[in-house]
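Entry:
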Amino acid sequence: MTAKKIRLDRGVGRAYLKSMRRAAAANGEPKSIVLVGIDGSRGSERAFRVGLKIAQKRSLTLRLVGIFPRPVMMDSSYVALMNQYLDTAVNEILAMLKGYAAQAEESGVPVTTRAFVGEPGGALVEESKSARVAVVGKRGRNRFAGRFLGSVSAHLAAHSHCPTLVVPEERGIDSSTEPRAPEQELAHGDDAADEPLSLIEESKPRAHQRRLFANVSDPLNFDSEVVVGLDVGTEADEMLQVAGQAAQLVDRPLALVSASPLNAAGHWGPNPVEHNIEIPNLRRPYIEHLQGAADHLSGQFPDLTVRWQFFDGTPAGVLSEASRTAELIIIGTRGHGGFPGLLLGSVSQAVLNRAVCPVLVVPTAKS
């Protein structure tokens, strides 16, 4: 169902906004909106705080969008009930948006608000056309319709026209005895955390101070780093540019990561000679791609610390494990090679489901 806009509380009118978009596109000006999906949950509360910080640091405009689906009434006798529901929903969501907008204005950030009735994921994708970045909670519940934002965040990340930042619930470090990182978010019975992961090669040791965790191995400890998952078979210039800007924004070093299950069952027989011959050949494209990406970033962002690591393991396993300690995970929406079939629903879907730190999904191709 196409979303229907109810009301624009603040900001410019629709016709003026369209003219501004056309002018910006004609002049090649960067988009200046931070889009935040709001549903009243704790997840969207945190998404608002993160979006507000981005808007403050980058001098951007905040756009708060509240969306709820229209329930289907099969019996005409329920028309009156439907109207009552919509009146209540409209008033509640506009009041909620007004409260968030007041907080933004107090922080000195320009803000607009919009409320829609319709399909939340589709409406946010449409709004993303004019945004620099979209921010949503990992999960949330619209108390009118019981709609989980988890499905909305996945849809937005898969189809957004701008990078999408998916923000999970905040989790602290367990330091009752010795520091312990939070565990991945695994479904009941999921044994993904037991997947063997081993470091094959890295560019250089970490130069920054980091915390040590009793339940995290040293090669997989990305404390205070921005981690970028790279696909050896995909051009990543746009994603690297976004990654460099993100690392500058949070003032953290960058770690570029690739992974491949080098000795997965069926790749070759249990012949140690053949194994030792094949490993260098298999890892060479990854190493060259990682080093090339690191050189590119160092040239574009000379003040940024950049290093890389290549792992024997699945990409989803490495990045999900990295999320336990990293400041931010950055992945693309499409790809192949080192991160096979990187469509939402494969590697990126797994990382979004399992990650315990924010994940920034960057559109890397459009069909």
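The first strand starts at residue 4 and ends at 8.
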